[in-house]
Specification:
- The complex is a heterodimer of chains A (116) and B (1012).
- With 116 residues, chain A is an alpha+beta fold.
- Chain A has one domain: Folate-binding superfamily (Folate-binding fold, 2-Layer Sandwich).
- Helices cover 16% and strands 28% of the residues of chain A.
- In chain A, the strands form two sheets. Chain A has a four-stranded antiparallel sheet with strand order 3-4-5-6, with no helix packed on it.
- In chain A, strand 1 and strand 2 form a beta hairpin.
- Chain B starts with 13 loop residues before the first strand and ends in a 14-residue tail after the last strand.
- In chain B, strands 8, 9, 12, 13, 14, 17 and 31 form a seven-stranded mixed sheet that branches. A six-stranded mixed sheet of chain B has the order 45-46-47-44-38-48. A six-stranded antiparallel sheet of chain B has the order 50-51-52-49-54-53.
- Chain B has 23 helices and 54 strands.
- Chain B has 1012 residues and is of the alpha+beta class.
- The longest helix of chain B has 18 residues.
- In chain B, helix 8 runs parallel beside helix 9 and helix 21 packs across helix 22.
- Classes of the chains: A alpha+beta (116), B alpha+beta (1012).
- Chains A and B meet through helix 1 of A and helix 20 of B.
């Protein structure tokens, strides 16, 4: 059972208080009608299933009801960081030891991309 | 019977307190401080069970959690039955009653053993599957009898009278195991100021020190144990949990501790101060750091006949003599690969009984204990091992021969030594189970001849669990590990002084697992690896020959390592044998993964208080008591208890549901009914962007909904499928009240939040659940207005308070919101008041309602009435594959809304645009007496060859008293274009029902009745 730090409450709480909501950083296309059926299907149904570092969306369901992001290792189940909505992970598959803080380009790509 | 194996003195038992107990119906006596196993051995009970597969007689082998044979059924009464109790871990108490779990008619004369003897050669691994494979349909029948003959204990048939608790704990350092390493680690961590929990599975803390003859600071080890425990008990930051097993090590240092508080006293918890004590607790511990001080298990040697009663672990022999004052026999032969096991022979000799010989696998053993044995004149046969035990219900002799362990062969003539006990030791395996739970694959160490744990972050191992065995080193390792754990948890280490312990000079051990026999393994007498599952060395060899190369496959094919002991005794030997057969090394073969639980955990402790009425929360509406008093039958809707129907009793005859529902339906259609609708989800939505937000999450338009007006809305997911529906009222320009289905309330609130928080945080809008704040009562029927007018001065005129309007006012003296919405198709008012006023309003309505025939109705009538009108229930008439268009609800779709609302894009996917999708229709059975089965499959052609193409199914079906006919809602492929056509519903009993596709609106298609 996980022990999860809610970045809004500022406390680490039992997993029972949270719900997982799937992969994080999946942005809804701004103009759905401009999407091909394949693009729309990709947004709706297709998710990554990495062995290793994964960014997930969780909600503090019986706490503050806020959604936030979790960087979790899918093999060790270690939670490497949690961060608020709109923020970017500092630990990624490319930078498992932490991204350089000035990696602005990468921030942009994470925000835009369906694939974090 | 006297305790013939009890020594006149010694041991940690209380000789002044005699305890009587029964085993298999026979009475015996033991002492306070005994385990059931030590008491049975004291009384000379050889056979404690029959084996799982071959029904061979079995005796006690070990003295702890690893015991495979002495697994008993405990309990004097039916309600107190506990299966799978290890006699070695069960403290003796007055009046204890235990039985063997196996053996029919009894363990002494077992009929099944005949099968074992005759069939023994013919029962290879997979025997049951291979033999009873055909016909497959009879497997269930076979299995029943196989299970019965196998005997795995049984659960009680009566309700458990005991209570169990869950405790949630936090600590900085959790130390598991209170042997020398654990005590030292706990002391070091506690001195630093860290919050420490020390848990130990045994009756007494102290572990191996309780039966050690070593001196710590020139005093007996047990005195040091007592002193440390006293110190720890006096510290506020330390919690001592004896009789507590760490049974599971889960993610992020979450450990479950199973504490047995009364099982050493009686088979059900005794009363204290008139109250029943808590029998067991499950501590759910979130630990900063965990120290595994779980020690090591001794490995037995695998030789022919090693399962005959009288074959014990060398260490267990020492434990029984030293801790319990019991010598489990008269004449001992010891077979060993190491020095430490010599203790068994020395203890046996000291107890005044005969040590026939020590067979030592090593050519030149020369350790301190070896010399001591020599000095006492004990015969040591070097380079040899016991290759076979003789005897049936008790060991009668040991065949000892010189062996070549590396070459796996017997090199000399075997000599048969008369004896009744054979002790064996093949070395020690660190207890890596808990570390294994965390996913770490253990590492083999050739110098230790054992696996050591691979540790994840936040956990460390000390002492035997790490392969450190000498007491002085174990204590030092414990202190160091405890200090390190505390400092990692943020506490500065404080000095701990260690007692002086003389260092014993031990010779090196050799690797020996399976002992060779003169005959090849497949033809030699059975050499048992896993005693509990009757897995032999031959079975493992056969499995490898049949192509099972992965140790996990070998495990599943042979059943090695299953059962209550989880391979604690046999696994490493089994892996070594598999490795030998496959020509690999042990680390190449690897281990199987140990999983929780370490030892069996009673369901009571897992469940805690979450049982019976506390199994799941129950939610009641404000009118619940009234419903109970008026005889309502209840239905569970989510966690809510909703009145299902209100059966009347007239002249001592109570209505059936069918009769009650017919009466309730007609009351609504002809007079007035009242429904407690408080359970519907209610979400208060406020903010300048509330209206915009509604337009994005609902399929229809919200831009022009004026204050005072109500609108029905459908909600889709972005895949275009309907997932909830309900009405939303405009309370003010920036203020709305959304209703959801009863079951969907929490889901819909989370749905609104996720879209707001993750996609449209720029919208200023706030959501709050007000489901419990407002109670809702629906009065509906032609007389509804007249009734309501009696209790309010609100203007109820049909022109000024229109259908789909809501008004604020006072009802029965209470501030109320009244909504003119209808789920029955009749004139209806939904009265919302603060929940704490609701019962008053409800009762006031009844005080005025009698003359109008006011009738309470439940969910069943609500369903009939809404289905007659073709109103869907999301989740019943929809199932996550139904679009608004499939429902024929194009009128609720804002195709031209500017924002691409949730679900819109999906409606133009080729699949959602198909014309032959399953669409909502009404079904009218040709025979009006027929009420179609919900879920029944629909076909177009009942004469089609099987399998018939299924074209839809019934989603809702009832008898309508208004129509005096059965009717149904269904989804049918292309159904909206098939009005008037006939479909067929073949049933499981061979009947085929006929029905006509009709409009889903059966009553008042123009909607005039709700508009009066």
């Amino acid at each position: 059972m996980f022990y999860i730090h809610c970045p809004y409450c500022g406390e680490t709480r039992e997993e029972e208080e949270f719900h997982p909501k799937g992969q994080a950083h999946i942005a809804r296309p701004l103009d759905p009608d401009a999407c091909s059926d394949e693009e729309w299907g990709d947004y709706l149904f297709f998710r990554d299933n990495p062995r290793g570092i994964h960014h997930e969306l969780w909600v503090h369901a019986v706490g503050c009801r806020k959604f936030f992001n979790v960087t979790r290792h899918t093999v060790t189940y270690e939670i490497l960081e949690t961060y608020k909505m709109g923020e970017q992970p500092s630990i990624t598959a490319e930078h498992p030891e932490g991204r350089p803080t000035d990696a602005v380009d990468q921030q942009a790509s994470l925000r835009d991309g369906v694939r974090a | 019977m006297s305790q013939l194996n009890r020594l006149p003195q010694g041991g940690r038992i209380d000789r002044s307190r005699k305890l009587s107990f029964t085993f298999n119906g026979k009475s015996y006596e033991g002492h306070a401080g005994d385990t059931l196993a030590s008491a049975l051995l004291a009384n000379g009970v050889d056979i404690v069970n029959r084996s799982f597969k071959y029904s061979r007689p079995r005796g006690i082998v070990a003295a702890g959690a690893e015991e495979p044979n002495a697994v008993v059924q405990l309990g004097a009464t039916e309600a107190a039955q506990v299966p799978n109790v290890r006699a070695t871990q069960q403290a003796l108490y007055e009046g204890l009653e235990a039985r063997s779990t196996n053996g029919w008619p009894n363990v002494q004369r077992d009929l099944m053993s005949l099968v074992g003897k005759l069939g023994g050669k013919f029962m290879p691994p997979g025997f049951y599957y291979k033999t009873f494979m055909a016909p497959a349909s009879l497997w269930m029948t076979y299995e029943k009898y196989i299970r019965k003959s196998a005997g795995l204990g049984r659960s009680p048939m009566e309700r458990d009278p005991d209570i169990y608790d869950h405790l949630h704990q936090h600590c900085d350092v959790l130390v598991i195991g209170a042997g020398p390493a654990g005590l030292a680690a706990a002391l070091a961590a506690a001195r630093s100021g860290a919050r420490v929990i020390l848990a130990d599975e045994q009756e007494e803390m102290g572990g191996s020190l309780l039966d050690s003859r070593e001196l710590l600071d020139d005093r007996p080890a047990e005195q040091w144990v007592a002193q440390v425990l006293e110190t720890l008990a006096g510290m506020d930051n330390v919690t001592l949990l004896p009789r507590t097993t760490a049974n599971g090590y889960h993610d992020h240092n979450f450990v479950t501790l199973h504490e047995r508080r009364t099982e050493h006293l009686a088979d059900t918890a005794p009363r204290k101060d008139g109250r029943r004590q808590v029998r067991a607790r499950m501590h759910r511990v979130r630990a900063g750091r965990v120290v595994l001080a779980t020690g090591a298990h001794e490995r037995p040697l695998v030789y022919a006949g090693n399962d005959v009663p009288g074959n014990l672990l060398a260490g267990a022999v020492s434990t029984y003599i030293r801790r319990y004052g019991v010598v489990p026999g008269q004449k001992l032969v010891l077979s060993t690969s190491n020095d430490h096991a010599y203790r068994a022979a020395l203890d046996w000799h000291e107890a005044g009984r005969e040590v026939v010989a020590i067979a030592d696998a090593r050519a030149n053993p020369d350790g301190e204990l070896v010399e001591r044995a020599r000095a006492r004149g004990i015969r040591i046969i070097t380079g040899s091992a016991v290759i076979e035990a003789k005897g049936e219900s008790r060991v009668s002799g040991a065949r000892v021969a010189t062996i070549d362990a590396e070459g796996f062969r017997v090199t000399g003539q075997a000599e048969t030594l008369a004896c009744d006990t054979i002790a064996s030791s093949g070395g020690y395996s660190p207890v890596i189970h808990l570390a294994s739970h965390t996913g770490g694959r253990p590492t083999w160490r050739d110098d230790l001849l054992g696996f050591v744990p691979t540790l994840v972050k936040g956990v460390s191992a000390a002492g035997g669990a790490q392969g450190v065995y000498a007491t002085a080193e174990v204590l030092a390792d414990g202190v160091e590990t405890g200090s390190r754990a505390a400092s990692e948890a943020g506490f500065a280490a404080a000095p701990v002084s260690l007692p002086q312990v003389a260092v014993r000079r031990d010779g090196a051990a050799v690797a020996l697992y399976q002992v060779p026999h003169e005959k090849p393994t497949l033809r030699a007498p059975k050499q048992f690896v896993d005693l509990q599952n009757d897995v032999t060395a031959a079975g493992i060899e056969l499995a490898t020959r049949e192509g099972f190369e992965s140790i996990e496959h070998v495990k599943r094919y042979t059943a090695m390592g299953f059962g209550t002991d989880q391979g604690k005794l046999g696994n490493i030997n089994g892996m070594a044998i598999a490795a030998r057969c496959l020509g690999r090394s042990i680390p190449e073969v690897g281990t199987t993964v140990f999983r929780p639980n370490y030892t069996p955990v009673t369901f009571g402790a897992i469940v805690g208080r979450h049982c019976r009425e506390l199994f799941d929360p129950e939610r009641y509406t404000a009118m619940h008591q009234w419903h109970v008093e008026h005889g309502a039958e209840f239905e569970d809707v989510g966690q809510w208890k909703r009145p299902w129907y209100f059966p009347k009793t007239v002249n001592g005859k109570t209505e059936t549901m069918h009769e009650a529902v017919a009466r309730e339906c007609l009351a609504v259609r002809e007079a007035v009914g009242i429904l407690d609708a408080s359970t519907l989800g209610k979400i208060d939505i406020q903010g300048p962007d509330a209206r915009e937000f509604l337009g994005r999450v609902y399929t229809n338009k919200w831009a022009k909904l004026a204050p005072g007006r109500v609108r029905y809305g459908l909600m889709c997911k972005d895949d275009g499928m309907v997932f909830d529906d309900g009405t939303t009222s405009c309370l003010g320009e920036n203020h709305f009240l959304m209703t959801t289905t009863t079951g969907g309330a929490a889901t819909v609130l989370e749905w609104l939040e996720i879209w707001h928080q993750t996609e449209w945080p720029e919208l200023e809008v706030y959501f709050n659940s007000v489901t419990d704040h407002w109670a809702t009562m629906t009065i509906t029927g032609p007389e509804a207005r007249k009734l309501l007018a009696e209790v309010t001065d609100m203007d109820l005129d049909r022109e000024s308070f229109k259908f789909m309007d809501w008004r604020e006012g006072v009802v029965a003296g209470v501030p109320a919101r009244v909504f003119r919405i209808s789920f029955t198709g009749e004139l209806a008012f939904e009265i919302n008041v603060q929940a704490n006023y609701a019962l008053h309003v409800w009762e006031t309505l009844f005080a005025h309602g009698e003359k109008y025939g006011l009738t309470p109705y439940g969910t069943e009538t609500m369903h009939v009435l809404r289905a007659e009108k073709g109103f869907i229930i999301a989740g019943q008439d929809t199932d996550g594959s139904v679009t608004p268009e499939d429902l024929g609800m194009q009128w609720a779709i804002g195709y031209d809304k500017p924002f691409p609302w949730i679900g819109k894009r999906a409606l133009s996917r080729p699949d959602t645009a198909r014309t032959d999708r399953k669409q909502l229709v009404g079904l009218k059975p040709k025979d009006p007496k027929v009420v179609l089965e919900e879920g029944a499959q629909i076909v177009f052609d009942p004469h089609h060859a099987i399998p018939m193409p299924m074209v839809g199914h019934v989603t809702s079906s009832y008898y309508s008293p208004t129509l005096d006919s059965g009717f149904a809602l269904a989804v049918v492929k292309g159904g909206q274009q098939k009005m008037g056509e006939t479909v067929y519903l073949p049933m499981a009993d061979g009947q085929v029902h006929e029905a006509e596709i009709v409009s889903p609106i059966f009553v008042d298609p123009k909607g005039e009745r709700q508009n009066v």
